[in-house]
Amino acid sequence: FRRDSNASPVLLEKDPQNEYLARGPANAMTAEMLRDSALQAAGLLSTAIGGASVAPDVPHQ
Questions:
Q1: Residues 19-35: tens digit of each pLDDT
Q2: Which of 6, 35, 59, 60 ranks highest by number of CB atoms within 10 Å?
Q3: Domain segments of the chain: what residues?
Q4: Residue 51 contacts residue 31 (beta carbons within 8 Å)
């Protein structure tokens, strides 16, 4: 389902700061933002800096 980012006058009156998330975001999230949001919601996001890098799968030639 989708939420409209345009607010009706009734919604603006009831929730002017969008505190209750009556309206959807004006822009889409990137894949990284979506991943981090899901990890944060699950309590699995590590905010520590550093660690081993992750190499993408590279096809062998």
A1: 887 777 777 789 999 99
A2: 35
A3: 9-42
A4: no
Q: Which residue matches tokens 């345009």? A: 6
Identify residue 18 by its one-letter amino acid code: N
Integer Cα distance of 61 and 56 in angstroms: 15
Q: Are 26 and 4 in contact (CB under 8 A)?
A: no
User: Residue 4 has what pLDDT?
Assistant: 65
Percent of the chain predicted with pLDDT > 70: 87
Q: How far is CA 1 from CA 6, 24, 33, in A?
A: 15, 11, 19
pTM exceeding the 0.85 threshold for the entire prediction: no
> Under a CB-based contact definition with an 8 Å cutoff, are residues 2 and 23 in contact?
no
